[in-house]
Amino acid sequence: MKKAEPKHKRLISFTVNGDDIEVEISASDRLIDVLRNKLRLTGTKEGCGIGECGACTVLMDGAPVNSCLVPAFQAEGSVIETVEGLDASGKLHPLQEAFVEHTAIQCGYCTPGMLMSALALLREHPEPTREEITRAISGNLCRCTGYHQIIAAIEDASAKMKTTE
Amino acid sequence: MTKTEWVGADVIRIDAKDKVRGVLKYMSDLSFPNMIYGAVLRSKHPHALIKKINTKRAKELDGVVTVLTHEDVPGLNGFGIAIPDQPVLCSDKVRYMGDAIALVGAESKEIAERALELIEVEYQPLPVVCDPEQAMLSSSPKVHETGNLHNHVKIERGNVEAAFKEAQVVVENTYFTPRQMHAFLEPESGVAAIDEDKNITIWCGGQHPYRDQLQVARALGMNPRKIRIVNTPTGGAFGGKDEITVQIHLALLVLHTGRPAKIVLSREESVIAGMKRHPMRIHMKTAAAADGTILANEARVVSDTGAYASLGGPVIGFAIEHSCGAYRVENVKLEGFCVYTNNGVAGAFRGFGANQVTFAVETQLDMIAEKLGMDKLEIRKRNALRSGDIAALGHQMEASVGLLRTLEAAENSRLWQLKEEFKAKPSAPHKKRGIGIACSFQGCGLGKGLPDYGAASVELLPNGQFAIGVSCPEIGQGNTTAFAQMAADYIRCSVDDIVVLSGDTGHTLDSGTSTASRSIYTGGNALKHAVQNLHNAISPIAAEILCVPEDDISFGHGKIVSKSCPDKILSFKDIAEYITARGLSIKSEGHFIWPVSETELEGYVGIPHLLYSYITQIALVEVNTLTGETEVIEAVSVPDPGKAINPQGVEGQSEGGVVMGMGYALTEDTIIKEGMTLTRNFSTYILPTSLDMPCKIETIIAEELEPSGPFGAKGIGEAVCVPISPAITNAIHDAVKVWIKQIPATPERVYTALKSREVS
C-alpha cells in the first residue's frame, strides 16, 4: 500500500480541559482538527469551516474562538476548554443543567459551541442582561430552536450560579 | 381515556444529557481503524455532456486507495425517492453543479481532495436551462430526454369564471418565492464499514433508514438484508436529508476497498450539491363576496425542481392541495407544473410546498379584506374550514379541524388584543410598525395513494425496563422522547424505564419516514398496538405467578395487579426475572396503516390528505422607512397539533419554526445564476441569528384532539414555519402600505417598493 509522506510536522504542547497535551501537528492543521481527530474530542462540531456558524466554539485562554479559524500551531502554550470539560467534576455544569431543563436543545449540533459562548459570557458577566446574552451567542447559529429556550436557559443558569455562590 | 402520567407533561428530552455533555456521537464523530476518507468530484458545468473521464493521474497519487467512476457502480446507477433519475456517478451528462462524477478514497482527507484535482474530465458544455417558464417551451434545451416538465397537476371544480363575474372583489397577482436552504448545522456526512461476508453498515444522518437501505441496495445490486442503515442521531434535517446524500458513495467505497470509509461534505459542497426548497412563481386570482366569503380561487404554480425529480412531483401536488389555504372555496381552477432546470436540485423541505402557496393566498386574503374594509382575523374566521366541510380538492374534512380554535386563541392573545398600542410606539420616528396575521393547514402523512405505514416493537428487558423501537429517526424534533412518553403511558410504567431504539434497520422495524409531520402519529399508533400485544403476553404469566385467572389481571402505575385481590401485586421486574429464569423473553410488535381520504383524484398520488394540523400566527414588525429593513418585534404562534405529547417540545418546534419562517420571509435565498450557486456559505446565505429573532414568541397550543391519533395527537413539525412568513409580509403592508409579492422581503426590495409608492 502506498503511504502519504508526512510533511511539515511539529510538536506543540497546550492544556486541554486541564490536561497537559503534547501533540504532533501539520502546518495546515486547524485547532478543530487537532481536537476532533487527534485528541478525539468530538464534542466540538464543524458546521461551516469559515467561522460563521459558531458550532466549533471553544475557549482559548478564556476567550471564545472559532476553532475552525485557529491554526493549530497558535494553540502552543495556551489553555483550551471544550464542552467535554464542562462536567469534568462528574456533575453537570449549571449551564448544562439549564439547557436540559429548558429543552434548549433539539438536534444538539450547535449545543457544544453555544454552551462555550455562554460559559465565556457568564465568567465575564455573572449576571448578564438579556441583551448581553443575545449578543454573546449571536455568533452561534441554531437552526432548530429559534434561540428563546437557549436564552432562557442561560438566564436560569446565571441565577442558579448566583444562589450557589 | 385513562388519565395520562407522561403524555402532556414537559418530560426532559431523553437525549438532552448526552447532547449537553458533547458525548453523543453524530455520524461524522465516528472513526474506525484503517478508515479511508472519501471525496466527491462534482461537475464544473451546470449542463454538459461528458466526453471523457481520466482517473489515471489521481490513482497514481501516493495515499490514494481507490478512484471510482460510473463503471464501478455494480447496480442501478441512479437514485431518487420518486424516480431514480439522479446518477450515483455521472457517465455521459451532468445536469447541475453538484452532480457527482468520480469518487476518491484515500488515506487522508487532504490526499482525497488533492486527487480530485488530478481527475481529468472532458466536457462539452450545453446551453443552461435556468428559467422554468422557458424550460417548458418545446424550443428549450432538454435537461432530461423525457422533457423538462416532470409533473403537471390540474384540478378544477365549480365555475371560477362565473364566480369572478358575480364577485364584489377580485384580486390578481403574481408571487415569487426563494430557494430556501435547510441549513442544518450538521453537513451531510457519515461512515461505513463492511465485514468479511460483505455485510455493509452505514451510519449516516437521514430521515428514512429503510428507504436509504433500498436505494443503496439497488445501486449496489445487493440484497437489502446485507445493508444496515443507522440514521439516529441526525444533526438537523428539515427534509434535506430525506433523499440519499452520501450513503451510496460510502457503500461504494467500502465495497471496492474492503476498508471502513468516511465522507463529510464541506458546507460549500453541501450548499451546491444539497437539496433546497422549490422556488415557485405563483399567479393567483381570488374572488370574494361583499361579506368576505371567498367565491373562487385560480392559481397557476410553476415550481423549479432543478436537475432531478426527488420529491418535486409530490411537492407540486401538495402545493396545489394547499393553494386555497385552510378555507372553504367552492370554485377552483388550480394548475401546477414541476419543471426540470439546471438550477441545483430541490426536494423535500419542512412545509413541503405549503410555504410558497400560503404566502400567496394569505396575501390575497389580506388584499380582499382591505378592499372590503374587513378585519383581517374576521375574514379568516368567515372562511375557515370546519369539520365536514369540502376542501379545495373536493375532499371532505373527515378528521379533526382546529383552525377556528387557533383563530380564537390568536384573537385573545395579548398581541392581537393590544395591537393598536403595540403599533403606536415605534422605536424611532422614521420607523413604522404593523401587525399581520396568517393561517395555514398542513397535510400529515404521505397522502392518498402512497404506502404509509408504521411498526414498533416493545421488549421487556431482564431488568424490568422496556426497550421500544421505532425507525423514524431522531433528527432533533424530539420524537424519541415523545415515543418514550407514549409508551410509558400505554405500558403503565415510568418514562425512566423506557429505552428508545431509533432509526436503525438493524434494531427497529420499518416505521417509515421522519417527514410529513407523521412520526408521532405513526409511531404512537404502532406503539399502542405493540403494547396491547405486550400486555397480552404478560397477562398469562402474571396470572400463573399470582394464581388468578388471566382476565383478572390489570396494569397500573408500574405494577400488575389482580383485580379481585388487590394485594396480589407484581412489578414488571418480577415478570422479567420470572421469564429470564426460564430462558424466555417477551418482545412484541405493533403494526399500523394510515387511514386515507375517501376522495380519489385520478392520476395523482400523495393528495389529498385525511389528517391536517392547523395553525394561526401573528407578527408585529417595525419597518425602517429610510433603509427598508424589517425587524420582527414579537410573534404569536397558535398551533393545533392535536394532543401535545410534550408541550415544551411543541413550544420548541413553534419557536424554531417561527424563526425559520422569518428567515424565509426576510433574508434567505440561495441565489443561482446561470446554474452557478453564488451564496455558498453562511457569509452570504443569511440565517437569522439570536440578534434577529423576535424579542418575544408566544406559543399558545390549541389542541383539537384527533380521535384516530395516539392520545389524540396529529403532528406539528412543519406547520409551525409556514404562515409566519405571510404574517410578516402582511405586517409590512400594515406598517408601510406596500404589498410584498416577492420574498425574501430584503431591505432593497422593501425600500424599492416604498420609493415606487412615493412616486405613484
- CATH topology call of the largest domain in chain B: Aldehyde Oxidoreductase, domain 4
What is the CATH topology of the largest domain in chain A? Ubiquitin-like (UB roll)
Number of domain modules of chain B: 3
Shape of chain B: globular
Helical stretch tally of chain B: 20
State the share of residues found in helices of chain B, binned by percent: 25-40%
Q: Can you tell me the CATH class of the largest domain in chain A?
A: Alpha Beta
Largest sheet, strands/sense/barrel of chain B = 7 strands, mixed
- Total strand count of chain B, please? 28
Derived from helix and strand composition plus strand pairing, the structural class of chain A reads alpha+beta
Helix content of chain A: 25-40%
CATH architecture type of the largest domain in chain A:
Roll
Poorly predicted regions of chain B: none
> How is the main sheet of chain A built?
5 strands, mixed
Strand percent estimate of chain B: 15-25%
* Mean pLDDT over all positions of chain B: 97
